[in-house]
Amino acid sequence: MKKANFLVAMALAVVFVFGTVTANAQIRGLGQKLKSTITEGASNLGSKIAADKVTFEKFPTTLEEFQAFQAEYGTTPEGAVAVQLVAMELYRHDKAVGQQCLALCNTDVNLSSVTRRLNELYRENDSYARPYLVSAMLQGAKPSSGYNPDKPYTIRLRKDPTKSDERSQMLKGYVIHLQLYSDGYDTPWRNVDVVKQKGDDYYRVSNCPAILTQCKEVDFDASDDWHGLE
Question: What is the CA radius of gyration of the chain?
Fold first, then answer.
């Protein structure tokens, strides 16, 4: 009888342990499913978790070309950063047209700080100036290469790993925190915030001081001079 009781007890213990392991596996599976759902939900906000790229062939030179560019690229958070760079480069060539373009792709609050900094960085015959600022944000452009980027023009982006998207009552939309890669700085990932405001068709830049700071100068022994952007 004692042996039979022992065998019964052992059988019950095995059933208990197996049931516990199975339950734990089910809980882990549920956790993974929940994590996947959260990631998918974040992606549905219009933001992407992984690094991404935006590629384009040429820089617009008129307001009409800029508007067409924004219509094509400005409907995504990543594309809005490309639109911003295009507007910044237009401002370097023609302040009047560039001002109109910057007004179309920035929030009202951010616009004045952008133009103020560009006026400083685009001064002529000034050692502080960085006419190749936008070039420095493009893939392949480095101080050692004269900031001449690869073609087609490409920008590399990622979600800011330290911040989550956030609801902004002031901006009437969800702010998405991105980072733009540049070889022109010791800290290569430069923060750029974008927002799609209620009723708007496009994402607009709401904060971007990190791409408005002085990039490094072209190396004195660079392999080539800066050729500008086309």
Answer: 26
Residue 119, in any domain of the structure? yes
> What is the domain extent for residue 207?
52-211
CA–CA distance, 32 with 105 (Å, rounded to integer): 38
102: enclosing H helix or E strand: helix 95-105
47: in domain: no
Give the three-class secondary structure for 131: coil
| 84 within a domain of the structure (yes/no) | yes
Whether 47 and 81 have beta carbons less than 8 Å apart is answered as no
Q: Whose CA is closest to 157, among 115, 211, 105, 111?
A: 211
In a domain, 40, yes or no: no
Its pTM stands at 0.78
3-state helix, strand, coil in the chain (%, to 5): 45, 15, 40
Query: Structurally, how many domains does the chain consist of?
Result: 1
C-beta atoms surrounding 121 within 10 Å:
20
Task: Encode pLDDT of 54-77 as tens digits.
Answer: 999 999 999 999 999 999 999 999
